[in-house]
Amino acid sequence: MAYEIQPKASHFIDGAYVEDTAGTPIRVICPVSEEEIARVYAATPAIIEQALASAKRAQVAWAAMTGTERGRVLRRAADIIRDRNYDLSVLETNDTGKPLQETLVADATSAADALEYFGGLAGALTGEHVQLGEDFVYTRREALGVCVGIGAWNYPTQIAAWKGAPALACGNAMVFKPSETTPLCALKVAEILHEAGAPAGIYNVVQGMGEVGHALITDPRVAKVSLTGSVPTGRKVYATAAEGIRHVTMELGGKSPLVIFDDADLEDAVGGAILGNFYSSGQVCSNGTRVFVQKGIKDAFLKRLADRLQDVKMGDPLDESVNFGPLVNAKQLDIVQGFIAKGIEEGARLVCGGEREKRAGYFLQPTVFADVSDDMTIARDEIFGPVLSVLDFEDEVEVLARANNTDFGLAAGVFTNDLGRAHRMVAGFEAGTCYINTYNLAPVEAPFGGSKLSGVGRENSKNAVDHYSEMKSVYVSMTAVEAPF
Ligand code: NDP
């Protein structure tokens, strides 16, 4: 029997698909055909209750398993995802509009990497022993309990796994709410985890808008919330979590600098700027959208960038030769077009792009602005679309100060062949995720996350374990108790 890729219902709770058509309908629109490809229903209070109750019930037994046993489930899920990568990538492409060329290598595979990595780590999670004379302290690394994950729409499969894998490895249960814009792929992550042996209730998915996220994180059974989203949403979710003193991870927006010195390899620098602005049609949180180019190579940089943009191939994202897809929906297209108009109005020089393509789908041309100054709206606000701004600079001290002159602090990159300067620059960047002579790689082995308004906590790497567990400290006395009276 052929593998059925379309999720069977709106929610996945307690090991099974669950439907409740009493919830608000959410139409899933294909960004290419602009037609409805699926319909899910927002979680009703009854669905939210089922999901939280089943997670709470399942978590204790899951945490009592050995880490190796839990890890085996995650690694099995990784293998299943890899086996079905093609089908899962097609689903992701239909949901987000991202080219299959990208989703085949960056979405389900990245989820599999996270499940494999944290599956491997699960058996190695330990506490410590601290000798204090004859007495000693030992620490137990304990799960937090029920964790809520809330996702953005740009990397739906990846986000569902980047949150789920470390949470489950540490012995937590998760209730995940995808973005209403891209609700399909997280359901497949849940289904596959269950197939791989995750007990019912350990990873539940419920659909809905912000209100559903809010209902989840105000429930007293919830110990932690991990959000991937914008800064305004982050503020609300963080404040709500604070009322219950809940643990948080906040993966929020950015306006990251990419600094290109005149001694850089020009071809690599242009490649980095393309990766950091046009991959996923620019809908990537860590994008280096403020491209600072040293004056001496500005013209050569812009010329080579314009040349390489000739190789953009737009079209049906399911065609594997297509390398540039539409924006996720009409609303995002509107937002990005608004920023382009603002850039022109404020005096930036439009080098190329800027227009919506005359075809079905939310296609917007890759857009490059030059002569952008630090105070322009396009240099200050997160655009979340294919808009690259080139800003000129003279020297290292000046550019570092300007690079850091933002409230965001997600990522930063530098291209130079001067080793000392490269390390000075990254030491000075006020950003959580930095790059030297490359941009936007996010392997599971490396911590990922932001400083300043871009977030709190880190995803991926051993670091994520600290955000999904807490240490219990146990003092053991080997001697008589000395009391003052
Ligand atoms: P939003 O902030 O609009 O939404 C993020 C998620 O939060 C959605 O699932 C949304 O639900 C939900 N939500 C909204 N309001 C609330 C609330 N009050 N309580 C609980 N949940 C709520 O972000 P987008 O989906 O538009 O994603 C784009 C943003 O995500 C960009 O700013 C981007 O930079 C950021 N991002 C950050 C990443 C990182 O790792 N740092 C990675 C990827 C994206 P719904 O939308 O369904 O109503």
Automatic annotation (TrEMBL):
Report keywords, A-Z: Metal-binding, NAD, Oxidation, Oxidoreductase, Potassium
**Which residue range or ranges hold the Aldehyde dehydrogenase domain?**
18-474
Which PROSITE patterns does this one have?
Answer: ALDEHYDE_DEHYDR_CYS, ALDEHYDE_DEHYDR_GLU
Provide the coiled-coil residue spans: none
Q: Which GO terms describe its biological process?
A: glycine betaine biosynthetic process from choline
Give the Gene Ontology MF terms in alphabetical order.
betaine-aldehyde dehydrogenase (NAD+) activity; metal ion binding
Q: Which InterPro entries does the annotation name?
A: Ald_DH/histidinol_DH, Ald_DH_C, Ald_DH_CS_CYS, Ald_DH_CS_GLU, Ald_DH_N, Aldehyde_DH_dom, BADH
Carries keyword Metal-binding? yes
Under which EC number(s) is this enzyme classified?
1.2.1.8
Instruction: List, from the UniProt record, the residues annotated as the active site of this protein.
Output: E251
Recorded family membership: Belongs to the aldehyde dehydrogenase family.
NCBIfam families xref list: BADH, PRK13252.1
User: What is the name of the protein in this document?
Assistant: Betaine-aldehyde dehydrogenase
The organism is Pseudooctadecabacter jejudonensis
